[in-house]
Amino acid sequence: MVKFENVTKTYHTLKVIDKxxxxxxxxxxxxxxxxxxxxxxxxIRLATGLxxxxxxxxxxxxxxxxxxxxxxxxxxxxxxxxxxxxxxxxTCEENIRLPSVVHGQNSDDFKKRFEDLRQMVALSSxxxxxxxxxxxxxxxxxxxxxxxxxxxxxxxxLDEPLGALDPLVRSDLQTELKSIFSRLxxxxxxxxxxxxxxxxxxxxxxxLQAGRVEQHGTVDDLMDHPKSEFVSNYLKAQRPPPSLAKxxxxxxxxx
Length: 255
What we know:
This protein is α/β, with parallel strands linked by helices.
């Protein structure tokens, strides 16, 4: 479980997170959405301890983030960013192995975990010998996912993990990720600006605006019972243009 209690964060005079109270249950997928600058990524950075809150408390499975040592963080959660964040001077396999080396994971445990993850993301052993620049964007994201999961943490944070991919690759990887989340049974917190993507992944959705929680619940709750004018306007802005909507409807009717 990930819990935010009266969390506030200010940069200079700008309050980017404003008294957020939010509880995200274990072994479920939660999606943070909202316009640019609303605080989605900042919440992730606060939860991972990359930045400190000014006020309030954040706990991961009952442990305060501020009390988690750097050595334990990779055991508590995996973290995946938009472009994967792979080190260009390391091979893909070396990127995946890095947390294992830093945290002294048993060699046999690493080998078994590595092979299980490789098969799960459907990458060949030969590809893992290449450098990040030598593989595609979708493959880099699969490598980043393996690295985030190599120590088998209970929580997985993903900050716009598919945002830089082209639509076809993104669609395929969405399907794969959803299947992986279901198999692993971990607590997943995912940031996106795409409501359709949120609806595809989420058990619960949190819509943020100006550092505040505007609405939290299921996608159906959000769509059917918007709690503010901002929520209604946000939903309207997410609708495709009429011509695109007609094309989508036509394609869905095709056998």
